[in-house]
Specification:
The chain is α+β, with helices and mostly antiparallel strands and about 120 residues long. Helices cover about 25% and strands about 25% of the residues. The strands form two sheets. The protein has a three-stranded antiparallel beta sheet with strand order 3-4-5, with helices on one face. Strands 1-2 form a two-stranded antiparallel ribbon. It has a single domain, classed as Nuclear Transport Factor 2, Chain: A (Roll). The protein is built from two helices and five strands; from the N terminus they run ββααβββ. A hairpin with a 7-residue loop joins strand 4 and strand 5.
Length: about 120
């Protein structure tokens, strides 16, 4: 059986002059990244799509805010990627001027259990 091939994100042209592709695990990671960093209302056809993590970087200052962001992020992952992944654990942490989101999940199609960490903000 052939491995599933997906279009890579962000869109790029590979060395052969074709659309760059990636494997399913990387494609799932790319979908999670898009969901996390898209603000609700940013996509006209899907106004509720997104977790808005970028918007929360400077508003994030308390354990209550961290809990709220974890809740909204988990809800967005379940709503838009629930058929692709199952979230095992989700941690949101503020470190100085940055925000770290760590997601433990399983890919439903393959059973893989990756852990991804996304960091927003911090020194330029």
């Amino acid at each position: 059986m052939n491995a599933r091939v997906e279009i890579d994100y962000p869109f790029a042209i590979d060395s052969r002059g074709r659309t760059a592709t990636t494997d399913q695990a990387d494609h799932v990671r790319d979908m999670i990244e898009q969901l996390l960093f898209t603000r609700p209302g940013e996509r006209v056809n899907l106004p509720d799509f997104g977790a808005g993590v970028m918007h929360q970087v400077f508003a994030f200052a308390s354990p209550e805010a961290a809990t709220a962001l974890e809740f909204t992020t988990r809800a967005a992952l379940h709503r838009y990627l629930g058929d692709v992944i199952e979230v095992q654990k989700l941690d949101v942490t503020a470190i100085d001027a940055s925000l770290q989101v760590e997601i433990h999940y399983s890919i439903r199609a393959t059973g893989e259990r990756p852990v991804q960490t996304f960091v927003v903000g911090g020194p330029a």
